[in-house]
Design goal:
mainly alpha
Length: 45
């Protein structure tokens, strides 16, 4: 494999991992807001 192919694979893998990580963080935040007993507006204040 030549250098551009390896670089594009690394960028593709990094992009995929960041996308998956972002979705997981969003799911955790939504779950926390759903479980929150007080007003959820305080979370973003």
């Amino acid at each position: 494999m030549d250098e551009p192919t390896i670089t594009s694979l690394l960028y593709g893998a990094l992009s995929h991992l960041l996308t998956v990580g972002g979705f997981l963080l969003a799911i955790l935040l939504i779950a926390r807001l759903i479980r929150e007993k007080r007003q959820p507006g305080n979370t973003f204040a």
